[in-house]
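Lay summary. Proteins are chains of building blocks that fold into shapes, and those shapes determine what they do. In this project we predict the shape from the chain. Here is one chain we studied, written as its sequence of building blocks.
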Amino acid sequence: MKKIVIFLGPSLPLAEAKEILDAIYLPPAKQSDLISAVTTYKPDIIGLIDGLFMTYPSVWHKEILYALEQGVAVYGASSMGALRAAETEAFGMVGVGEIYQLYASGELIDDDEVALVHGLEDTGYRPLSEPMVNVRATFRRAKDEGVISKKLFEQLTAIAKSIYFPKRRFPAIFSKAATVGISQKELEGIANFVKEKYVDIKRQDAVLLLKTLRDLRESLPQASSKFDLVKNQFFSSLYYRDRTIQRNDTAVPLGDIAGYAALHLPDFNDINLQASNRALVQILAGILDIKVSQVEVDKESRRFRSRYTLREESAFLEWLEQNDLTLEEFNQLMSEMACCRRLQNWLFTRKANETNTKIVLDELRLQNRYQECAEAAAKKEQLVEKYYPDFSEEKYDDLTMARLAIEHERSTSCSISFREESVNEAGFLSGDLLKLELMRSHLARKALQNRQKLERSTEQSP
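And here is the predicted shape, written in a compact code that computers can read:
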């Protein structure tokens, strides 16, 4: 069954909507809500009925285009949906209902035709003012039924239109009408008509949209975009900062997650620096016209999945969901990492035998960890010199590279790869030199363990 998301507010009570169409119902849409619905709920169809404006930025047209590009059918009616459908129908959004037709034909052009103020969610978004489309339709019905003349219809319509939309209520309309000479008798007659025969076009169109989607639910073909969406800087801000994700039934903007990290992670400065450097590398790569191959991207992906034990596809897909990434976005991230690695390898070749020694030591100094490493390295040398004064590699031929790497990882939790590219990236000129360092570290740990055993046995002697 196709999944449908509906943005609904004051145009139709939620309980009535649910009786017509089984769907995911969300509050009136504001900017970023539609794009968030696409990535969070992955719907087949979005029905936009109500939306916010003024108090919040309105649903942006490019959100609709993004949804269409992702193969989501987007329908609009009644209120904000009718407006946006008329504006984006050329790109594939589908409008439903009379209000949409009025906007699409150009008969209506003003946003205030459908605008109104309403209560909060706990009130059921109870309307607190009258939308102009409903006022006009009600007065037209009164004219058609002979309750008022054509002239009075035009007068009342003009008066209603002149009132600022949050204050557009029938008592305010009639009060202003009385000041321009319309008789009290006429006003009482139209007031009674409004109570009995009010025309709610917005409601009618909302119902029509829900019924349309209900009837089309299984026969609707997948949407196909008729354009190439240009994802400019504003769209990127919307997608990467304002878009929300769901955690524990709570919508959280991505920007808030980054903000939390900035204020609560002790190593955030390092995270931020690395993230910025990765972004700067992409700019440099663009200037140098460096492009990585799919082979390099796949290799980077395997590295990452191996590092975090995501070799099984089910574990990897779960990780993607937990990290709010699509497979396409993950591959883009791996492409960035492959690009970083390509430039790093280029840098190491430029430094020849120096390899990465200076830049690693400088980074240790910047992180105030140089002294710790220097003293630990000296301690390792002391242990090897004291307990293995006649050390030579030939004496330990039984210690293979694989065995040394496994033992080292178990002892230090530091994973060692002895593939040639990994050896070079770590700063070793050859695999033999890496093996030598692993061997000396192994002997130092062994010497330390023997010394500690000797010290314990001495303590236990009488």
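What the prediction tells us: Residues 163 and 172 are 8 Å apart (CA to CA).
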